Amino acid sequence: MTALAPESLHEQLLSRRYEPNVAAVNELCDSLQDAKPGTVVPYVDPMHDVEECRIISLFSNIGEADGSGFITAGDQDAATRLLGIQWTLGLRPEFVMPWNVHPWHVPGEPNGKFTPDQVQAGLKPLLKFLALVPRASVIVAHGTEANRLANLLLKTEVPLLWRRGLKTYKVRSLSGRAFAGSPARQEEFLADMRTAYADAMARTGIARKA
Asked: Which domain of life is it from (predicted)?
């Protein structure tokens, strides 16, 4: 059997972005992009599921949008670290879903450190996103900007939040200077993240890998 070229795999994923398990969220991405002409809003990968999602990974999306067109944890090292955490715990993709603090990117221009206004601008999209994932009750906020947005979210008086008993965990970004340090220090950072995700799984009734 001939292996599919990377472009074919990419096209297959994009063609599946409106499948029922992710359509509502990716339609939200389209509407956010339409609201700010000249920007792109990365999609949620179709391996995720709006009905099954219990945990949100909220990323401080510094840098350029990933070429895949989907939300990522950051660079390749960041993605590898997150996958390692999820694999170790047995956290399957249908139970977790990514989102960006500031959903918008300008093509070819990396996002720098977000201003308070840019973080604030991410609040309404985050609330709309949360309304589409009815079983999500935990946010793991990666990085400074995500932590700031989580603080803003908790200060709102939206009934959805207290009905779900929303819990937030504040951890480091998975890449960049936030992850600089010796191998021992980096392992400490990863251990903190594993603890946060493990607690989130216990809180939401997701069984850990035996």
From this structure: Bacteria
Strand stretches in the chain, DSSP E: 55-59, 96-100, 138-142, 167-171
- What is the per-residue DSSP string for 105-164? BBTTB-B-SPPHHHHHHTHHHHHHHHHH-TT--EEEEESHHHHHHHHHHHHS--HHHHHH
Q: Tell me the CA end-to-end span of the chain in Å, nearest whole number.
A: 35
CATH number for the domain whose boundaries are 16-204: 3.40.470.10
Q: What is the pLDDT of residue 10?
A: 76
Q: Is 2 helix (H, G, I), strand (E, B) or coil?
A: coil
Residue pLDDT, tens place only, 11-33: 888 999 999 999 999 999 999 99
**Domain edges within the chain:** 16-204
pTM > 0.70: yes or no = yes
**How far apart are the C-alpha atoms of 208 and 210, rounded to whole Å?**
6
Nearest Cα neighbor of 63 from 28, 113, 14, 101 is 113
